């Protein structure tokens, strides 16, 4: 499955506004294979809130494009990254 992405990333104060975001938020992986549990998903995170606490990233992908993210498709949950902590003092690069 190939992902579609926008021209650039945006900032959202509430991540629950999937239909109101202007751009995509930093998913760098362009091909997702449903059912491949050893696949790596690459994403970029930018913290724009000074003095904020540690961040948490969740990535949900509508693998079957039915308008929700609560399915399992070919053994793969649509919640592909779950509660990944991003420390404020994290080092740029791959982790």
Commentary on this structure:
The strands form two sheets. The chain has a two-stranded antiparallel sheet with strand order 1-4. Strands 2-3 form a two-stranded antiparallel ribbon. It has 95 residues and is mostly beta strands. 0% of the residues lie in helices and 19% in strands. The protein has one domain (1-95). Mean pLDDT is 69; it is low at 1-6.
Q: What's the helix and strand layout?
A:
Blueprint: E1 55-60, E2 72-73, E3 76-77, E4 79-86
Antiparallel strand pairs: 1-4, 2-3
Number of strands: 4
Helix tally?
0
Q: What fraction of the residues are assigned to beta strands by DSSP? A: 15-25%
Radius of gyration: 14 Å
Order of helices and strands: EEEE
Specify the structural class.
Answer: mainly beta
Q: What's the rounded overall pLDDT mean?
A: 69
Helix content: under 10%
* Major sheet: arrangement of strands: 1-4
Count of domain modules: 1
Distance between the termini: 24 Å
Q: What about the largest sheet? A: 2 strands, antiparallel
Residue windows where pLDDT falls under 50 for at least 5 positions: 1-6
- Anisotropy-based shape: elongated
